[in-house]
Amino acid sequence: MATLARSAAETVDPFDVSRPELYRDDTWRAPFAKLRAEAPVHYVPDSEFGAYWSVSTYKPIVEVESLPDLYSSEAGGITIANFDADDPNAVRMPMFIARDRPVHTAQRRTVAPAFTPSEMTRMAADIRHRTEEVLDRLPWGEEFDWVDTVSIELTTGMLAILFDFPWEDRRKLTFWSDWAGDIEIIKNDELRQQRLMHMYECGSYFRRLWNERVDKPLQPDLISMMIHSDAMREMDDNEFIGNLILLIVGGNDTTRNTMSGLAYGLDKYPDQRAKLEADPSLIPNAVSELIRWQTPLAHMRRTATRDTELMGQQIKAGDKLALWYISGNRDESVFGEDADALVVDRPNARRHLAFGHGIHRCVGARLAELQIGILLEEMAKRRMRVNVTGAPERVSACFVHGYRRLPVELSKY
Questions:
Q1: Is residue 361 part of a domain?
Q2: Backbone angles phi, psi at 123, to 5 degrees
Q3: Alpha-carbon gap, residue 68 to 101, rounded angstroms
Q4: What is the spatial distance between Cα 194 and Cα 188, in angstroms, rounded to a whole number?
Q5: For the chain, how big is the Rg over CA atoms in Å?
Q6: What is the pLDDT of residue 72?
Q7: Overall domain count for the chain
Q8: Which of 91, 115, 141, 171 has the least C-beta neighbours within 10 A?
Q9: Distance between CA 216 and CA 201 in Å, rounded?
Q10: What are phi and psi of 384, to 5 degrees?
C-alpha cells in the first residue's frame, strides 16, 4: 500500500509524521505503528517541509543507507527541512555528514582519530572524574532539573574537551547546538536570521581558536586535527561553520538526550530499573537499549539521485526521503512485539538504528556509549535512583528527539 488515504474534510494529514506536536506531546507512536503496518514507504504530498517519502521500517531504512550513491546526503541535505537545499537564497554551510563520496570520506577520516578505541581508553578516566563531580553535587530529596544539571553539564563538558574549548564558555556550545538543530526555525524568517547570526558568532569564536593553533604541532583536539588535515585545512568560512555545527550538534544531542531519556525511561519502567539495579553487569547492553528506546535524532534525510524503486514504490530523481530512525527502532519484525518498551537485557539492542547505518554511521558512537555507560556505573556505585516528579518538557520538532526539562528527585535504593 503506497499511501494512506485521508478524507477531503481533513486539513491535517494524520500520517504526516513531521508535525512537531507529535514529539512535543509524545504522541508519535500510533501514527508510526500504522505506517509500519500498512505503508512502510509512504508518500506525503504536502507538509510544512514540502513533499517527502516517509520510510518507517527497518529494512528499507538500511537499504537506503546502504546505497549512498543512489540516495544522496549532499543533494538535499540531511534533514527534512534542510536550511541550505530548500532555499535558493540560503547561506550554504556544508558539513561532511551532508556530503557524498569522496569529500565525505576524506573529511570523516580527519576527525575519526578522535573516536578510536585508544582515544576512548585515554578519555575514560577524565569522563569518569567529571561524572563523579556532577553526581556528587546533586541534591538528594529535593526537586531539580535533570536535563540542565546532569545531561547538559556532562555533554557540554565533553564537547569542550574534544575541541579544547575555553571551559568558562562551554555553555555557548549548548546554546549554538540548540539553535543549529531546531529545524522548526525554517518556518519563521525572523528566527532564520537569528539562527544565521548565532552560527556566524559560533564560526567567529572557533576561527579565533583556529588562528591561535594554526602554527602549532598536532594535538588530539578536533580543531588541531582539522588544521593538520589535507581534506579540511583549506575550508572556507561557511564550510568551517558547517562542520563545526555538525560536530557540536552530533556531540551534544545524541548523548544529552539519551542521558535524559535514561532518567525518564528507567522511571517509566520500574521493573527494568530494578533489574539493572540488581545486576550492574547489564549496563553495557542497557546503554544500547536506552539509545534505541530514546532515538535522540528522529530522522535523517536522503535525496534520490535517479528514478528507482523502494519496496514496490516508484521513487523519482530529486524525491526527498525521511528515514525515520525513531520508527525503525520500534520495528516489531526486528525487535519483537515489545519494541515500544524499554528492556535493559534485550538480546539484539545493538541492532538499533539511532547511529544510522553505512558510511554515514555516527563517527562518535563509541564516545556516546562510553559517556552513558559511565553515568550508569557511577549512579550504581551511589545506589542512586532518579524519580521523575513531573511531566517532561519535550523538544517540539521532528529532528532532535529530546527533552528541554525533566524535573526529578533522587533517592537511594
A1: yes
A2: -85, -15
A3: 8
A4: 10
A5: 21
A6: 97
A7: 1
A8: 141
A9: 24
A10: -90, 120
Cell triple for 152: 547538559
Full residue range of the structural domain in which residue 184 is found: 20-412
- What pTM was estimated for this model as a whole? 0.93
| Domain contains 279 | yes
Query: How many angstroms separate the first and last alpha carbons of the chain?
Result: 50
pLDDT at 1: 43
In a domain, 4, yes or no: no
Helix H or strand E segment including 103 = helix 103-111
- Specify the DSSP class assigned to residue 282: G
For 41-87, how does the pLDDT look when each residue is reduced to its tens digit (9 = 90+)?
A: 999 999 999 999 999 999 999 999 999 999 999 998 899 986 555 55
Q: Which of 289, 297, 258 is nearest to 352 (CA)?
A: 289
Residues 309, 312: Cα–Cα separation, whole Å = 6
CATH of the domain at 215: 1.10.630.10
- Residue 162 corresponds to which cell in the numbers above? 574534544
SS3 54: strand
Joined together, the cell numbers standing for residue 311 give 519496496
Torsion of CA 143, 147, 149, 150, to 10 degrees: 110
Give the strands of the sheet with 407-412, arranged side by side. 144-145, 407-412, 384-388
8 Å CB contact between 219 and 213: yes
**1 within a domain of the structure (yes/no):** no
